[in-house]
């Protein structure tokens, strides 16, 4: 799996010069850094080694039993901010039940489920969108 960190160097839409210069590509990132490695090794390095403050969006699509530990690691490492979006694929098939229980039950995420099918089959699957709302839930005073 590749961890992609997009540098948030966007043109500001309110800047007329930026409008003129960049036209329809105004929101394209100017630089993308691709980091390759195991999620559990990369996540703890993101702040110091890769100068990441917090993440805007995380797409989870690796081994399903890593969804929960990696989500907890992201929280522990302070990489989630209010509004960070986690989008997790295949949460029904093969399934990530402990991840679902955590994001739906911890009180720290607002969750939406998008039902789907496994590609090329009629097998029910789904994506979970979990928006981090910050610490301070009843489980984590
Ligand atoms: C289902 S594939 C999806 C890959 C990619 N998202 C795509 O759609 O093409 C899962 C990939 O995650 C990788 N993977 C599994 N566990 C990982 C981990 N802990 N860290 C990084 N990559 C991992 C696997 O090697 C595999 O290539």
From TrEMBL:
InterPro entries: SAM-dependent_MTases_sf (IPR029063), SAM_O-MeTrfase (IPR002935). Belongs to the class I-like SAM-binding methyltransferase superfamily. Cation-dependent O-methyltransferase family. It comes from Rousettus aegyptiacus (Egyptian fruit bat). This is catechol O-methyltransferase. The lineage of its organism: Eukaryota, Metazoa, Chordata, Craniata, Vertebrata. GO terms for cellular component: axon; dendrite; membrane. One of its GO terms (molecular function) is catechol O-methyltransferase activity. It catalyses: a catechol + S-adenosyl-L-methionine = a guaiacol + S-adenosyl-L-homocysteine + H(+). Its EC number is 2.1.1.6. GO terms for biological process: catecholamine catabolic process; developmental process; dopamine metabolic process; methylation. Keywords: Catecholamine metabolism, Methyltransferase, Neurotransmitter degradation, S-adenosyl-L-methionine, Transferase.
């Amino acid at each position: 799996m590749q961890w992609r960190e997009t540098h948030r160097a966007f043109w500001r839409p309110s800047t007329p010069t930026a409008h003129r210069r960049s036209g329809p590509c105004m929101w394209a990132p100017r630089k993308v850094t691709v980091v390759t490695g195991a999620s559990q090794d990369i996540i703890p390095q993101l702040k110091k080694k890769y100068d990441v403050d917090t993440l805007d969006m995380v797409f989870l699509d690796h081994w399903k039993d890593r969804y929960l530990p990696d989500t907890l690691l992201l929280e522990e490492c302070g990489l989630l901010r209010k509004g960070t979006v986690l989008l997790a694929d295949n949460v029904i098939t093969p399934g990530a039940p402990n991840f679902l229980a955590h994001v739906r039950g911890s009180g720290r995420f607002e969750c939406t489920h998008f039902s789907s099918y496994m590609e090329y089959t009629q097998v029910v699957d789904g994506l979970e969108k979990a928006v981090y709302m910050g610490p301070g839930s009843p489980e984590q005073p």
